[in-house]
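Trying the structure run again after the queue cleared.
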Amino acid sequence: MPAAPPKPKRKPVATPPAATLVRRLERQLARLARQLDDERRRHARAVAAVRRAADRRLASMMREIAALRHHEARADALARLLATRDADAPARVGDAGSRSDPV
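Done. Tokens:
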């Protein structure tokens, strides 16, 4: 078996100067700070949208409750009216028989 040719040696990677590393880290820090600000704004918009939706649902429920209370009040008023009419009905029937209206 023939021997494999030797692999070429890699040149050692030179460590960049400290100033280059500092600039790279500053750029990365600036990019991450922008991303954080963007994420905070996006989150604030999302929270505001959720609050608006909840406010709309709450307002809708309050309108429905008000309408139901209105209908309940009308039903109670009608029940009272019918109760007073039914209570007066026997008296009117008795009065109607004793009338002496000529026909």
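The mean pLDDT is 87. Worth checking whether this holds up in the mutant runs.
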